[in-house]
Amino acid sequence: MIQHDVPLVRLNTFKLPCVAERYLALTDLRQLEGPEFKQAPELVLGGGSNMLLLDQVPGLTVHVSLGGVQLLTPVPVRKTSSSLDTGTLIVRVAAGVDWNQFVRYTLDQGWYGFENLILIPGTVGAAPVQNIGAYGAEIAERIEAVHVWEYGIGVRVLTPEECEFGYRDSRFKQEPGRFLITAVDFRLNGKHELKTGYGAIQTELARLKIDNPTPNDVALAVTNIRRSKLPDWFFLGNSGSFFKNPVVPMSVHNRLKTEYEDLPSYPINPGHVKLPAGWLIERAGLKGMRNEAVGTYEKQALVLVNHGSATGREVLNFSESVQAGVLTKFGVELEREVQVLGVSTV
Ligand code: EPU
């Protein structure tokens, strides 16, 4: 049933005030056959964790609330109390399932592969859109298929290649308004292959005095790291990393490195490197800076926070001042990671 003038402030992790002109919760796939889904709605809302909402969303907002987790194949065989069959597991997860609850569920089931991606806010359906990633892992590595509704056409199943995944990028981001993700098939393992190469994970495992980590240990290390650096949106509204880490030509990197010896960088290919936007913002003197209710987070400059009463427009203006500061100081352009949606009414 369509509702009118529905507030979205509790449905976005930035806690920005916004009103949906019309609002529909998608709880059943059969609803997709209705006239509303012949074309794309104005806004498709999952966990609201990667968006900056302006005051109003005209038209229809669809809140994807499809639930369910299904193990497709094969059923794992418990060999001993501590080891599982080594086979690959395919798990189908509905788009409305909370990502972090799903990761915790996989760990409880002994389905491994997502331990590095614990505690990321948002829903399963939103996760492929920006190819969520953290601590050396990306969701795209474990996607088997993405089930979508293509507006005006119908049900489709996309292969990972057809999703065109990249760093914080996908076809869903590149072609907004074409697909609505209804479910994702993931490939997990009954036996774990841990990714502990990321420096911060190694440091945290050493601090915990863990030599032979289990997937639960890695999840604990990532949980501790995230809690120490990233704000919990429940207490301080935010959208995670606000900008992408910029990929720059080697010549730009070399120019900056002569001036800033401690500049961290990650090689992408022989001609390009990724620079940490958090470092650039901090070294531009903008870490912890605040303008009324909007600021950069004091422990991770890449995260913009809503100290309480910010509007989307204020966050957007503030983010542009951060981009300008980094451009002036380093000559590097920061691109937004979050999507700006809706319209301002003032
Ligand atoms: N750094 C600073 N100052 C800061 C923040 C970072 O100097 O204020 C430096 C750090 O010291 C480090 C480097 O920047 O040398 C990278 O920092 P960090 O490991 O915290 O990761 P990041 O590049 O800032 C990315 C993701 C995060 C993800 C972490 C861990 C992007 C845009 N962000 O952040 O993802 O959790 O790596 O893998 O790629 C998100 O997308 O919402 C998100 C939180």
- Summed over residues and divided by their number, the pLDDT gives a mean of 95
Distinct compounds present? uridine-diphosphate-2(N-acetylglucosaminyl) butyric acid
Tell me the series of helices and strands, N- to C-terminal. Answer: EEEEEEEHEEEEHHEHHEEHEEHEEEHE
What low-confidence regions span 5 or more consecutive residues with pLDDT below 50?
Answer: 78-84
Distance between the termini: 30 Å
Helix/strand-derived category reads: alpha+beta
CATH architecture of the domain at 69-189: 2-Layer Sandwich
Tell me about the largest β-sheet: 5 strands, antiparallel
Backbone shape = globular
Q: Give the helix proportion (percent range).
A: 10-25%
CATH C-level class of the domain at 69-189? Alpha Beta
Structure characterization notes:
The strands form six sheets. Strands 6-7-12-10-11 form a five-stranded antiparallel sheet. Strands 1-2-5-3 form a four-stranded mixed sheet, with no helix packed on it. It has a four-stranded antiparallel sheet with strand order 13-19-18-17. It has 346 residues and is an alpha+beta fold. Residues 78-84 have low confidence and may be disordered. The protein is globular. It contains eight helices and 20 strands. The chain has helices spanning 99-109, 160-163, 171-174, 199-207, 215-229, 250-259, 277-283, 312-330, and strands at residues 3-7, 19-26, 43-45, 51-53, 56-64, 69-73, 88-94, 133-134, 137-138, 143-150, 154-158, 179-189, 237-241, 247-249, 266-269, 272-274, 290-291, 294-297, 300-306, 339-341. The two termini are 30 Å apart. Among the domains are: 69-189, Uridine Diphospho-n-acetylenolpyruvylglucosamine Reductase, domain 3, CATH 3.30.465.10; 237-341, Alpha-Beta Complex (Uridine Diphospho-n-acetylenolpyruvylglucosamine Reductase, domain 1). Residues 134-135, 229-230, 240-241, 244-245, 264, 276, 278-279, 282, 287, 300-302, 337 line the site of uridine-diphosphate-2(N-acetylglucosaminyl) butyric acid.
